[in-house]
Known about the structure:
Blueprint: E1 12-17, H1 29-41, E2 46-49, H2 61-75, H3 90-102, E3 108-111, H4 120-133, E4 139-143, H5 145-148, H6 154-163, E5 167-172, H7 177-187, E6 192-195, H8 201-207, E7 211-214, H9 221-232, H10 236-245, H11 247-253, H12 260-268, H13 286-298, H14 300-305
Parallel strand pairs: 1-2, 1-7, 3-4, 4-5, 5-6, 6-7
Helix pairs in contact: 1-2, 2-3, 4-6, 6-7, 9-10, 11-13
Amino acid sequence: MRFRSDPSALRGSLAAVLTPFTDGGELDVAGLTELARWQRDAGADGLSIGGSTGEPSSQSAEERITAMRAVAEVAGDQVPFVPATGSTKLEETLALTAAARDLGADAALVITPYYAKPTQEGLIEWYATVAGEFPDLPIVVYNVPTRTAVDITPETALELRRRCDNIVGIKETTKDFEHFSRVLHRCGRDFLVWSGIELLALPLLALGGAGFISALSNLAPRSLADMYRHWQNGDPEEAARVHYRLHPLVDLLFVETNPAPAKWALQRAGRLASAKVRPPLVSPGPAAQQRILKLLDEAKDVVEHERLTAAVGLH
């Protein structure tokens, strides 16, 4: 909890770590630990687990807490730990957030409750309740309308900031770039806004965004960290070069539903023992595998930089 008292330190490239399973479908804690450690050592500015990339809806609360514990131990006091603790149930969200607090989380990332399609007033009450239960824990709102069927408006973000001192920022997973700008304009540029859309990660920095919480860190943690450093060091041209070199790996993530393609590539590279995803997701079929291999080949220099050369048979 080294960074809990200073949310402004939660900037840069935060890794949205996926959750490995064994071939039998059990939680692979050892594999998760190694994956998180690799991302930390490659330069990730923080670690997250339990967001969309982590397949949370297919896990029990106990499994999610076990995964949080593993990643919290890797983060230690070296980098911020920002686990995702949201659920469609308020009681489960509170229980997961309490577990994250007790594990030393520096902030909690709380998704909008999915399936129910609450009104904006319902969202305000939901987040105010969560924030009120944990006044000493920074809360990051997680807006991902493609998965939850509800969008947090900039006006709602502003109301949450006004009402709750510990709501410090928002992860925006929307391709509406005007939305990013309106949130920052409404809430103030000191409000921490992260991108969850890989190809908007760099553009958001130009608006004053805090960084990105990205599934791409599972494949390219070093490159994402490099991109952020180049921007911070006043070299936007080099940051843009990295951004464009990452395009094939961004496309790879979504050949099929995330995180199935990334898991398949990581197993091929020797970073995971199994590419198992839990139902209703399935592993990529033959056509998807060929597409993944083609994209890995297009990003050959990045793959080498990330030490994933086995994924494309490089030596």
